[in-house]
Amino acid sequence: MTQKNTPTPDGLVIVDKPSGFTSHDVVAKMRGIAKTRRVGHAGTLDPMATGVLVLGVERATKLLGHLALTEKEYLGTIRLGQNTLTDDAEGDLTSSTDASGVRREAIDAGVAKLTGAIMQVPSKVSAIKINGVRSYKRAREGEEFEIPARPVTVSSFTVYDIRDAVAEDGTPVLDLVVSVVCSSGTYIRALARDLGAGLGVGGHLTALRRTRVGPYKLDSARTLDQLQEELTVMPVADAATAAFTRWDVDAKRAGLLLNGVRLDMPAEYAGAGPVAVFDPAGVFLALVEESKGKAKSLAVFG
Fold this sequence. Notes:
Blueprint: E1 11-17, H1 23-34, E2 39-41, E3 50-57, H2 64-67, E4 72-80, E5 82-84, E6 93-96, H3 104-113, E7 116-120, E8 129-130, E9 133-134, H4 135-140, E10 150-166, E11 172-182, H5 188-198, E12 203-213, E13 216-217, H6 224-229, E14 234-235, H7 236-243, E15 245-248, H8 251-258, E16 275-278, E17 284-291, E18 294-300
Parallel strand pairs: 3-12, 15-16
Antiparallel strand pairs: 1-3, 1-14, 2-3, 4-11, 4-12, 5-6, 7-10, 8-9, 10-11, 12-13, 16-17, 17-18
Keywords: Isomerase, tRNA processing
Catalytic activity: uridine(55) in tRNA = pseudouridine(55) in tRNA
Organism: Streptomyces antnestii
């Protein structure tokens, strides 16, 4: 008996990414699971890291660029006393310093300096493009270069636990269990590097788990094995409602919007960022933003 081919549903898939996979690896796997080439991700996650990776399937890929800009939350472990080439545990060790004398007060002061609106230099082994070439490619080829500092916001940087440890080379180190809430574009391994540098002992990230991207949390994420068994897709309308301000319009306005007319936008939506527009039947029509009092379309779905 032959099975009927069911169309791939539009929507978001919240993946609990395994360690060792690149974000592109997860996208490639999802293309096989969802049986479509039209899959993308909202913001990368380093291979070492695990946790929430938001994928868009079919028409939901049009939401991804806007979702990538939302706030993110992480749990991680920072090792004080060692620097690595990549600022995380995957890179070669470049220096070791006894960190056993570092006190809690100094750590708290260092964390405070890295909280709020700060300027951050991303890791050289990152996907940042310098004159059109990925930073990690330049680094691997041994090129000398500088990455300009960028403004990021660290809303919260909390140290939950400090553990004495001894590294493989015998150096006394400190392992900090931390949580970070930050803006898009913030590198947690750069926070680890800069905290260690500020304390004079060096530092790098040894573990990282992303627990939230915007409104999407770990409790709604599924592993690739679970998704292979049952593809769980958040419908595009639900995804838009969760992530963006909602604007319900009447049937007349809905028709005008879908015909390319720029609607007058109520003042309450000014400065709200992307706004999800729904018709009277609850159909998600478009993602718009206010521009000179009018609704400028970012992506149309209706």
